[in-house]
Amino acid sequence: MPHKYKTKEFPVERVREQFDYDYETGFLISKRYAGRPVKGRLSQNKGAWMVTLYREDGSRVTTNYGRAVFAWVNERWPDETIDHIDRNPRNNRVENLREADNVLQQQNTCNYSYGSCWNKDAKKWQSRIFINGKSNHLGYFKTQKAAQDAYMAECDRIGRKYLPPTLVDGKYVVAERIDPAAIYIPLDSF
């Protein structure tokens, strides 16, 4: 379901009038304040980085920093939320941003660990997948890798388009499908 943001009504051209974008750093650069990088401010309720946009009449609209970068680069507001692939809300480089629905956002969380989680009661790894907002249990496994393999198999079976980023050799990799042997993500790595 697309999100309804006040910024949808805010002309994207105004974002480009107020800012330039540094592709190397991921910062918006203020045209109003002598080309200084706009660092944004931390939202108190969501922990997201925000940026203030100014309408022609001087009134302000505050929006998510990543949404403003997405709008500047793509010349349109995103239809969904913006997901930071590497999970770092300060990394607003365009290659780190993607439109995401709630399912993809849920998958790309530190505690999700690629379809697996530790079940304290069963004392085993549990595999689950979210389909249409509902959690579907895939089974209990002795190892985290086995639980993640079950998740990958279910993704293949249902033709899931998105997969969360994977830590491979110390770097996050985003792919439609990757070698299951490369997706082991120890929980203590986050």
Can I get a quick summary?
The protein is an alpha+beta fold. The protein contains 4 helices and 13 strands.
Q: What percentage of the residues does DSSP assign to strands (E)?
A: 25-35%
CATH class of the largest domain: Alpha Beta
Biggest β-sheet: count, sense, barrel? 3 strands, antiparallel
Number of discrete domains: 2
Count helical runs.
4
Mean pLDDT: 75
Q: Helical residue percent?
A: 10-25%
Low-confidence stretches: 1-5, 172-190
Q: Numbering strands along the chain, what is their spatial order in the largest sheet?
A: 1-2-3
- CATH topology type of the largest domain: Homing Intron 3 (I-Ppo) Encoded Endonuclease, Chain A
- H and E string: HEEEEEEHEEHEEEHEE
Description:
With 190 residues, this protein is an alpha+beta fold. It folds into two domains: 6-100, Homing Intron 3 (I-Ppo) Encoded Endonuclease, Chain A (Alpha-Beta Complex), CATH 3.90.75.20; 102-189, no CATH class. Helices cover 20% and strands 29% of the residues. It has a three-stranded antiparallel beta sheet with strand order 1-2-3. Strands 4-5-6 form a three-stranded antiparallel beta sheet. The chain has a three-stranded antiparallel beta sheet with strand order 9-10-11, with helices on one face. The longest helix is centred in the C-terminal third of the chain and has 15 residues, at 144-158.
